[in-house]
Specification:
Structural class: alpha/beta
Largest sheet: 6 strands, parallel
Strand order of the largest sheet: 3-2-1-6-7-8
Number of helices: 7
Strand content: 25-35%
Low-confidence stretches: none
Mean pLDDT: 88
């Protein structure tokens, strides 16, 4: 006797673009087709993906922002993709200066202070949380898939799991490379997220390799300097 097939879950995918791109720094896989990536990881006989929401913010650096702009234009060519933008804000902070002590032969924290401008990403976490809760409250969704390892999203996940009774799946970005050429390893979700998810999935090198855009997409070329 054949087992009854599982119900297909109406699923929305939420991608923390900043978290994902941060993990891909120093790899050759940043020209990434996120739809292909998600589809290569999820069980598509179980998940019917109705939408993929990609959350990011433009860099404060001009060259990086230009490459991001081109990348987002390519993402918009994918079906079922929605891009939600936050922003970066420069904040002035005061910190203790670290100097090398030749006598001790190590770096030490001095009594001197310096002012620096630190770019801070704003709104992305709130945007992701708001969209997750709104979509789940609105109705026709059985499962959310979160591609992130950010524990700031713990509270909305608790709400949709325990109050709204939706299934939660976590896809965790790879471990960040210290330098180009280092081996790529999958990563485990943070324990706070792992407790909330029905399934924990990892991104592996073969997923990234098989999910790259071609160098030319709808007349849009891969930017120079983009790995």
């Amino acid at each position: 006797m054949q087992s009854k097939p599982s119900k297909t879950l109406n699923t929305i995918v939420y991608i923390d673009g900043l978290n994902l791109q941060y993990s891909l720094k120093n790899t050759p896989y940043t020209w990434l087709n996120v739809k292909g990536l998600v589809e290569s990881i999820l069980n598509l006989s179980l998940h019917k993906i109705s939408k993929i929401k990609y959350f990011t913010a433009f860099s404060t650096k001009r060259d990086s922002a230009h490459r991001q702009f081109i990348y987002l234009k390519v993402l918009k060519t994918l079906p079922s993709i929605e891009i939600i933008l936050g922003k970066h804000k420069k904040r002035q902070i005061i910190g203790r200066l670290i100097e090398y002590d030749h006598r001790l032969k190590r770096e030490v924290i001095t009594g001197k202070t310096v002012k620096i401008f630190k770019p801070e990403e704003k709104e992305t976490d709130v945007n992701i949380a708001s969209h997750i809760v709104y979509d789940c409250c609105k109705g026709n969704i059985d499962c959310i898939v979160l591609l992130s390892n950010d524990t700031d999203l713990k509270t909305p996940l608790e709400f949709v799991k325990y109050r709204l009774k939706k299934k939660v799946v976590i896809i965790t970005p790879t471990k960040r490379l210290e330098k180009s050429g280092d081996p790529i390893y999958p990563n485990k979700p943070h324990i706070e997220l792992r407790k909330l998810s029905k399934v924990n999935l990892s991104i592996e090198k073969h997923h990234l390799k098989s999910s790259q855009f071609p160098n030319l997409v709808n007349g849009i070329y891969k930017p120079k300097g983009w790995s």
